[in-house]
Amino acid sequence: MTMVNQKAIFVALFFLVLLAYPWLDGGSYGIDLVTKIMIYAIFALSLELLVGSTGLVCFGQAAFFGIGAYAAVLLSGEDGPASILWLLPASAGAAALYALAVGSLSLRTKGVYFIMVTLAFAQMAYFIVHDTPLGGGTDGIYLYFRPILGEWLVLDEPLVMYMFSLFCLVGTFGFLGVLLRSRFGRALAGIKENEQRMLGTGFVTYPYKLAAFTISGALAGLAGFLFAVKDGFVNPELLNWHLSGAALVMIILGGLGHLRGAITGAFAFMLLQEFFKSEAIFGEFARHWHLGLGLVIILAVAFLPSGLVGLPDVLRSRLAGSGVVPLKKLPEGGR
Amino acid sequence: MDLTTFLIQCLNALQYGLLLFLVASGLTLIFGIMGVINLAHGSFYMIGAYMAYALSPVIEATLGGGFFLTLLIGLALAVLLGYLLEWAFYSYLYNRDHLQQVLMTYGLILVFEELRSLLVGDDVHGVQIPDFLSGSIPLGEVMSYPVYRLFVSAMCLVLVVGLFYIFNRTRLGMMIRAGASNREMIQSLGIDINFLYRVVFAAGFALAAFAGMVAAPVSSVYPGMGNEVLIICFVVVVIGGIGSIQGALVAALLIGFIDTFGKVLLPEAAGVLVYLAMAVILLWKPNGLFKAA
Amino acid sequence: MSNEILLRGQGITRRWGGLVAVNRVSIELSRNCLHAVIGTNGAGKSTLINLLSGEIPLSEGTVELLGNDVTTWSQPRRAMAGLGRSYQRNTIFPGFTVFENCRLAAQAKAQKGWNLWQPANRCPVSTHAAREAAHRAGLDKVLDRTAGLLSHGQKRQLEIAMCLATGPRVLLLDEPLAGMGAEETGRMLTLLDELRPDHAILLVEHDMDAVFRVADRITVMVNGTVIASGNPDEIRNSGEVREAYLGEGH
């Protein structure tokens, strides 16, 4: 069996486990938690398209997430449930539109300056939501009716919400998988590896990057839409830069350059958080859960330079007796 | 706005800008010379502020107190801590991808914040202004300006002048400037690069911690204060141009004035203004105002 | 018919501040003609290639490609119009396989950026052109190898292959022989010979033996200026060139 097949089977198994999970552990807490993690996984995937696949480090992803969430609440009326059929595309579209505007400007800068310009635009969106009455100010706003699709898809039910989120996660994963193999995706990979060469070869790279940025914004908006529907509530903290930072941490922790890395990272990050927060294990000390999480992250950088998806390779070489590559000897400089 | 208010706001803006510069100068040098994106830099500021809070009663009890003594001991501790941190963590990051640095320094933020919570707790604490600096200078008939704020600005100014002297007039400064503009070059000049890195890092830590210490009586100390400062300092660094210390000064003062006057004149848009300024400047000059020469 | 001029640069000048890197250089590249540019380090040879290919804008002068004035065209647009270039330092895509390097280069001619669903390796235009280019550059046996792991000589071959994959009419080659062994050099010169009949080639090169072996025309640059241009015999016998360039260290 080839490596590629093995990985595909793992991913398929993983999704099957998620599908079966509500019946393995029927608790409402577990279902709610995994729904939340799956939404974050979609969010992480949206960022992976930019950072891992195109080499554009965006530090303002939370703005797209938040705009998707706010759009879902603001656009759905107060008289009755809206249809998912138009509300979902509208929410993702609002985020995509904002991403298009932000991308068209910020793609004029490069490297760390790009990181900071995307942060700047996200902060502007944050303060606009935070300081104006448009979105209820700091208190946020409630969603009166969760959107529906006919009679059979009513997102009020936690289990339906769970399945719908899983459906969106698998859909996003599949969509990005196909996209990255297409000519468009290969061009993005080329831009990440060597943009100068792409220009010299005849690719006008700007529209490619802008398209990637917009698609990424739409997917983040989709995650935001799901989040708003799940919680039935939005507040400005959804646009906070902490969330952009957390998404970055998720995809780096999982392993950049792999779609499954983004999902792995989202699950690892959120589950570690739950683990260290668990009073059953840590008792009084659970209050200080950041400490454990921080230490695990530092250890991950030290021993898993290619992220969690590189773990099998590290273990394999361990078993073969070659040991872990010492930190200082690692090749590859920064970009 | 009358003239007195205007003057007061100018002094506030100057003080804020100078404090920002002290934190941002270390950040821009660590980035410019070592190529490390240090998200934990805000934590250094936080550590400084909490040292001012935690050390003064201890020193009061053992050595009989003294504001300057506390500052001095705090600075020494900061240098030592910076030196150790560089050795234990940052020295592993130099040849790594930027995103790995982001990840590790993010981990450090979490650790520092929790250690702070474990050692000092999560409450907001005020820090005493020393008696001899606690007065106010009357300005006009109804307004006055606290002496301590003037003192903070003065201390910062002294440091800024000192920093520029070291930077432009000494051999160490020459090495740092060479390093900021061309990292390969200093290696070829036969300079001990490990030593240089450690010095710059310890100095950067100490500057941020010092800013935290002198700011603590004005701002009081509270959880999350480091992260607030971190983001705004990154704004300063990129507006100024990465690795440029002059740029950091100009940008810090600019942000100081925009933020201070924004809060007075356009309170509802104050939060946006700083970022709007950054976006406009970077779209106009994609590499910041001063590119490291 | 066989020797029409494909690329013409006239009065090309580039200033950096007060420094003139390239000073009023005029050059013509014709099909079936290998035109070498030689000169000391810093003579402006690589800058000339960057100017002709559109990587940096001209301060003065004009560039004409296949009869069109392309002076204001961007680099990708010139590349699409048939201008291929290789780089002095390897600028391959190190993480891709050799085949994928060539295929992506060939994809430039069939971009269809809006096609997000069809797998790139099912694009017959680019896969065919990629195989063809890799074959011409002698990379058949290493198609599936990761480019970053190739030997230096093979990386230089890949540079050329990627260039060829876009189907260019004009080739600007920046030191393709740098760091190559004798055998690899021989193979590369054979390749250049094969490419000559249907391409206009500009070759910047330090290896004088190789240049005098393959070049039909040689232009000598010193300090950004052309001091001589002619066939190899004329250059070899030019007193001025000997004094300014060949005399030193040769």
Strand content of chain B: under 5%
CATH class of chain B: Mainly Alpha
Our count of domains of chain C comes out at 2
Overall outline of chain C = globular
Strand content of chain C: 25-35%
Shape category of chain B: globular
CATH class of the largest domain in chain C: Alpha Beta
Which oligomeric state applies?
A: heterotrimer
Low-confidence runs of chain B: none
Helix and strand composition category of chain C? alpha/beta
In the CATH hierarchy, the third-tier topology of the largest domain in chain C is known as Rossmann fold
Topology, number of strands of chain C = 10
Write down the Rg of chain B: 19 Å
Question: In terms of structural class, how would the helical and strand content of chain B be classed?
Answer: mainly alpha
CATH homologous superfamily grouping of the largest domain in chain C: P-loop containing nucleotide triphosphate hydrolases
Rg measurement of chain C, Å = 18 Å
Number of domains of chain B: 1
The number of strands of chain B is 2
Largest sheet of chain B: 2 strands, antiparallel
CATH topological fold name of chain B: ABC transporter involved in vitamin B12 uptake, BtuC
Fold and architecture overview:
The complex is a heterotrimer of chains A (335), B (293) and C (250). Chain A is mostly helical. Chain A has helices spanning 3-24, 28-54, 61-75, 84-106, 111-131, 158-181, 183-201, 205-231, 241-254, 259-277, 279-282, 289-303, 311-319; strands spanning 141-142, 148-149, 153-154, 233-234. Chain B has a single domain (16-284), classed as ABC transporter involved in vitamin B12 uptake, BtuC (Orthogonal Bundle), CATH 1.10.3470. In chain B, a hairpin with a 3-residue loop joins β1 (136-139) and β2 (143-146). The N and C termini of chain B lie far apart (40 Å). Chain C has 250 residues and is α/β, with parallel strands linked by helices. In chain C, 35% of the residues lie in helices and 26% in strands. In chain C, the strands form two sheets. Chain C has a six-stranded mixed beta sheet with strand order 6-7-8-3-9-10, sandwiched between helices. A four-stranded antiparallel beta sheet of chain C has the order 2-1-4-5, with helices on one face. In chain C, β9 and β10 (225-230) form a beta hairpin. In chain C, α3 (98-107) packs across α4 (124-136), α3 (98-107) packs parallel to α5 and α4 packs across α5. The longest helix of chain C has 14 residues, at 152-165. The termini of chain C are far apart. The interface between A and C is medium-sized, with 25 and 39 residues. Chain C: GO terms for molecular function: ATP binding; ATP hydrolysis activity.
